[in-house]
Amino acid sequence: MKEKTRFIVISGDQKKYKEFKFSRIQLVTYTLITLATVLIIANYGTDLLLEFNQNSKISKLRRTNSVLQNRLAEMDTRVTNLTNNMQHIAKKDDELRMIMGIEKLNSDIRNVGIGGARYDYDLIDDVSGFDENVSLSKQLTEIAKLEREVTLEKKSYHSLLLTFEKKQDSIAYLPSIRPILRGNIASGFGMRRHPLYHIMRFHEGLDISAPIGTPIYATANGVINFAGGMAGYGKMVKINHKYGYGTRYGHMSKILVRKGQSVKKGEKIGEVGNTGLSTAPHVHYEVRYHGQPQNPKYYYFDDIILNEQIVARAN
């Protein structure tokens, strides 16, 4: 009789028991079947776990790609807006240059963004899932172009600022207000009959009639070159301005400045009088450019309020 392996199962109260008999072959067979079943279940479970994990990663990557695609679309819109703004700035730059009398930037300089770095990234493939309308390469290239254009505009505006400051300075030293706020033109610029000599002579300035004691103002920033008496002009003041300009004020009753003194546009320098070769109280006013007499009427505004505001700021 073949030996059999016995398994006895006894109840908890030890009153009942169950006996199982297995031959050695049966025991080995059942053991192998059990191990095979466990291995199959473990293998299947592992596959399920790996598949779940892989699906989770793919799902995460898809969500990431979706977010990136949306961000790229937003960036594409922002790059387009920035490009439009840069075009507007370039247009304003050209307009400012025209106003200031500066030559516009030529097209070769304006096209500075055409060359430079290129970014050839191909994100359109079966794995990434990026929309074919979204091009990171194009956006990076456009951003690099915008960076160079911004640098160009910074240099351009620096140049414009320097020019503006220079023009502001030149305006300050350009004769541009009336030497007295109120008064009538008694004699103009050009050929005229001299009131005392009764002969035709060239009159190098304007005679502006006003009561004695009326304030006389410097018509531009400058330095007093002469302050005193001069034949024909009576009491006179000469002012040297920058950029070749000079002004003269004659027939004054009182001089309030001295030679070498700096004065500002609108600053009081004296008072109207009747000194020198003069037949009535007035100021003889001359504007000279590199020593040549200019018609003063082209060098001041008739707007009394504007003249008064400039004078008020200076005094």
Describe the 3D structure:
With 315 residues, this protein is of the alpha+beta class. It folds into three domains: 4-67; 83-172, no CATH class; 184-314, Glucose Permease (Domain IIA) (Distorted Sandwich), CATH 2.70.70.10. 41% of the residues lie in helices and 25% in strands. The chain is rod-shaped, with a radius of gyration of 49 Å. Residues 113-129 have low confidence and may be disordered.
How far the N terminus sits from the C terminus, by CA atoms, comes to: 138 Å
Task: Label the structural class.
Answer: alpha+beta
Question: CATH homologous superfamily of the largest domain, by name?
Answer: Glucose Permease (Domain IIA)
What's the architecture of the largest domain, going by CATH?
Distorted Sandwich
Q: How helix-rich are the residues, as a percent range? A: 40-55%
CATH topology of the largest domain: Glucose Permease (Domain IIA)
Beta-strand content: 15-25%
Low-confidence stretches: 113-129
CATH class of the largest domain: Mainly Beta
Overall mean pLDDT score? 77
The profile of the biggest β sheet is: 10 strands, antiparallel
Oligomer: single chain
Shape: rod-shaped
The radius of gyration over CA amounts to 49 Å
What is the H-and-E element order? EEHHHEEEEEEEEEEEEH
